[in-house]
């Protein structure tokens, strides 16, 4: 590590994306010859060629591929540390970046306030993440923790407090024949194609985008989507239906779609998730704030039921 030049590493990472010396130079605001110089210096430093270059194409060597796989996460972690220090130096407060796919509401919103009361030198920054890639921002160091729709079965991620457990909702266009029902059964899902989330793990899709009913009737699938709003727009246009958690349904005010509870499916729930081995000091504080908030919500619900 002695004498390592960050600029050399940045050059290699950009070149690995572009696979073109001229384009890499444009992104780095340096000349093409400077890109070559930085690359040669890094190759001399590590002791092996990282890039194969001919007059027609640029590609990574097998050693370069291995180096990229190891360097990428380490560089992003380092960049996140620097960014965090810069933010803290600016207003004196440590940042915890919380990824969220829909809206921050209910117990999460309360937990954020409790967190900032317990850690007055810190603040939570809300970062929107897509439905189709909830884990990428965690692995890339773009967020420190995230609230996602369960299940999550990733070895490199920790699942903390779980909450908002309730029946899944089938999102339908307002004029669909099933839209007037107060509830539909899982066998009814064979009557309308589903709009799945693109690139989601198989174990997650089996819960939230099944391909068959319990009796074996086929559930057709439309093309996948990346974002919630993209999916809801397809549903409103009559292109299919989506399965969503009940908390998402509660905060939608659109008149062109309806959310109908589905019986016969596993309930949906949300969870706070963060990278295994994370050393961010705010994560256990936020997890504790959320757990305490959920306890408070449960007690209030119990009181309401006893009074009713």
From TrEMBL:
Superkingdom, taxonomy of origin: Bacteria
Keyword Transcription attributed: yes
Pfam families noted in UniProt: HTH_1 (PF00126), LysR_substrate (PF03466)
Keywords: DNA-binding, Transcription, Transcription regulation
Residue stretches making up the HTH lysR-type domain: 4-61
Alphabetized PROSITE patterns for the sequence: HTH_LYSR
InterPro entries: LysR_HTH_N, LysR_subst-bd, WH-like_DNA-bd_sf, WH_DNA-bd_sf
Family recorded in the similarity comment: Belongs to the LysR transcriptional regulatory family.
Protein name: LysR family transcriptional regulator
